[in-house]
């Protein structure tokens, strides 16, 4: 289930229904890679050839929209700063007992840029000298920026944007292995924009020193979710209208009185009206998810989904004689949203065992 799809459907539902309230929740997500409990100390090394030693290398300028310029540049010479940022982010996760960084760039003496993995001998020497169990080696780093300037004629204003794509490659090494046990090829992007009255004033969207600082900090954070559990923010909603108890429960939620809201939703669930039962069941599912009881949340979202399916199945297309369970009048039905939310909970339940195993390391 795509998180972006879920968010989009939630926006559509929010726009079509005035009786819901949207909010964000935070929860832990397991890292892509799990480590044995005995792996406690790690070192970050910079294995990137930064021979160009240049922070910004313009590559090409091409005409953009309305005859204005689009500038593309590649940033080299930042690997040391990014490796330091990477180490800081790994340490801040408090997942490993100790996080060290090797001060020297391993490929600093290279004359010709090259991408090379660490040899078995290099790994053994590094782990022994640093006293660590594993090496996280930054092997390659691509940073590409596209700076675009356009003129918005309707507003008579210039618009500058800077979109930076960052692709770090990190390999994991342990002693007595001839090659990395895992290699991470990650990518993400960061974006800035600026509006002003002249083309010159928007040409530099962000001051250069601040740009370098934000790029390196962001780049260092990208591989972390592959290596340590991380916190994710997601959209959720509750039904807030249809009965006085639902309205009162919404007030309780705004005041962070979730237990009181839960009692009111249980009472609404006793209603004889299917729609109110569906509203209450969905809200109770959200309550249990926030409380960390995913199994109970799945139980209640299943109840809500079944009721929603029964409700929407009554709306028969007179032409085709088929029930439309996904869309009603061109907008996603409650059944559709609840089914997507159910998929989100199923994914969370599937990840729980892995997450719990990983979190046992920090107990």
Automatic annotation (TrEMBL):
Pfam families per record: DUF6340
Family matches, as SUPFAM superfamilies: TPR-like
The protein's name: Tetratricopeptide repeat protein
């Amino acid at each position: 289930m795509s998180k972006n799809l879920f968010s989009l459907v939630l926006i559509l539902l929010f726009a079509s229904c005035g009786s819901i309230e949207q909010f964000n929740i935070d929860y832990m997500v397991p890292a892509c890679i799990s480590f044995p409990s005995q792996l406690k100390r790690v070192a970050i090394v910079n294995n990137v050839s930064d021979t160009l030693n240049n922070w910004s290398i313009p590559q090409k300028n091409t005409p953009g929209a309305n005859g204005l310029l689009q500038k593309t540049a590649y940033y080299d010479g930042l690997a040391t700063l990014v490796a330091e940022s990477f180490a800081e982010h790994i340490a801040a996760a408090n997942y490993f007992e100790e996080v060290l960084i090797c001060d020297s760039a391993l490929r600093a003496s290279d004359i010709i840029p090259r991408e090379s993995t660490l040899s078995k001998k290099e790994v053994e020497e590094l782990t022994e000298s640093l006293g660590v169990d594993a090496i996280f080696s930054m092997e390659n780093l691509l940073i590409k920026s596209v700076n675009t300037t356009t003129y918005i004629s309707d507003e008579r204003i210039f618009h500058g944007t800077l979109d930076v794509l960052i692709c770090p490659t990190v390999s994991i090494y342990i002693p007595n292995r001839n090659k990395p046990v895992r290699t991470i090829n990650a990518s993400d992007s960061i974006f800035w924009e600026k509006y002003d009255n002249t083309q010159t004033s928007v040409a530099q969207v962000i001051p250069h020193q601040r740009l370098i600082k934000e790029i390196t900090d962001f780049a260092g954070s990208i591989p972390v979710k592959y290596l340590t559990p991380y916190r994710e923010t997601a959209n959720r909603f509750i039904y807030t209208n249809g009965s006085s108890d639902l309205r009162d429960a919404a007030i309780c939620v705004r005041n962070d009185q979730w237990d009181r809201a839960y009692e009111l939703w249980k009472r609404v669930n006793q209603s004889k009206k299917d729609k109110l039962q569906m509203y209450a069941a969905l809200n109770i599912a959200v309550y249990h998810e926030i409380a960390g009881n995913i199994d109970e949340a799945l139980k209640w979202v299943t109840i809500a989904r079944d009721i929603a399916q029964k409700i929407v199945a009554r709306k028969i297309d007179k032409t085709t004689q088929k029930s439309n369970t996904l869309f009603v009048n061109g907008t996603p039905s409650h059944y559709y949203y609840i089914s997507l939310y159910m998929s989100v909970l199923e994914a969370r339940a599937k990840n729980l065992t892995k997450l719990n195993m990983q979190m046992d390391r920090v107990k």
